[in-house]
Amino acid sequence: MASKYTREELRFVERLSGRIPDSEIAERFAARFGREPTALAIQSLRRNRLMPTSPKYRAYTDAEIAFVRSLSGRVPDREIAARFAARFGRQPTAMGIKGLRQDRLMPMSPKFHAYTDAEIAFVRMLSGRKPNREIAALFNRRFHADVSGKAISRLRSRHDMPLTIMRRA
């Protein structure tokens, strides 16, 4: 049975298999050989030839991985996800960023800074006007997070925000 891929093309795919996602292999294959196989065709080729599988995390390009690596250990995962979306146009979750960092052995996010400046400013704006539970509900809607009223209370006390609702005279 004749193969529809040349030996050079097979070696090319085999060399990249398991290191980068199938979609990126397909892009590089098209650039090098002038044929445009789909990511599914590359995946099928890899499986039929028993080549290594793609990484288990969601497909990230080299540029995206370098971007996450440059911020890793200095910026919280939520903020990395927000900056990632602004730069690359797709929205990974904070858990997706965390999984990528763990798989690629990147530094962990700092424990001392769990909230972004925008999140702290939002809580500061509402602090003293609404109870913690309401602030938490608004916070979760605005930032797509899952924080409790207790977490808002700790944040307010840590950043010297008013803890009680101020009554207007």
Would you kindly provide a written description of the structure presented here, covering whatever features stand out?
The chain is an all-alpha fold. The chain folds into three domains: 7-48, no CATH class; 62-103, no CATH class; 117-158. It contains nine helices and no strands. Helix 2 (22-33) packs across helix 3 (39-48), helix 5 (77-88) crosses helix 6 and helix 8 crosses helix 9.
Structural class: mainly alpha
The tally of domains stands at 3
Instruction: Characterize the largest beta sheet: strand count, sense, and whether it forms a barrel.
Output: none
The count of strands amounts to 0
Following the backbone from N to C, one meets helices and strands in this order, namely HHHHHHHHH
- Supply Rg: 23 Å
Tell me what portion of residues adopts beta-strand conformation. Answer: under 5%
Helix content percent band = 55-70%
Please work out how many helical segments DSSP would assign: 9
Q: Low-confidence spans: pLDDT under 50, at least 5 residues?
A: none
Distance between the termini: 88 Å
Outline:
rod-shaped
Mean pLDDT: 82
